[in-house]
Write the structure tokens for this entry.
Amino acid sequence: MYLKIYSLLLFFGLIPFLDVNAQTNGITPLHKFMQVNADTTILLEHASGWIGPPQYWILSKKGDTTTAYIYDLPHKADALVPNAIRKAIQKASGFDPLRKIEVNQFFRPVAMPGRLKGKAWAILMAERPWSISDDKVDGRGCPPKKDRSVILDGGTTNLYLITKGEIKKLSFYAPAFYEEQCPGRKGRQSILRIEKFFSDLFKEESR
């Protein structure tokens, strides 16, 4: 019965409106740790249908100090690795997919690139992240139109805005794909610029 329901949903193109292809960890002990120990924190998460280690890109401000952090496995070789060997490497590093995401060996500060020193926080705040409209406000994907494509495994970009008083989550499904399909949505354009900012900031650490 469930297979039949899934097939019908797939046939009618409704799967993108479900969260079955977004493996997100939600609000973790790491989010709450940053809430207690910093004034303001911006945390970017890419959630996909592929089961793998979480990776967070973080920019945080405490007083007049801005610090970048990353949460992921140690440096990864750009190579195809058999599954059994990959799992053995992860196990040796202490990675356990069921482990709490918290302050541990996978969470570390990252040196600010020279071009961004003294500028990173201002660049991020220029996007006015607390004013961005996400998919919960604007809707997921494109407005209905027969000649537009949909994507079933595009993954979701989540942005967590963490202050002492709240943790606000913004969520965008396959923003780059849908910006190509139906360009012009302001919130989606903002999250793509924020993704580009974080990608540049953590370019060396994410390889």
In short: The two ends are 43 Å apart (CA to CA).
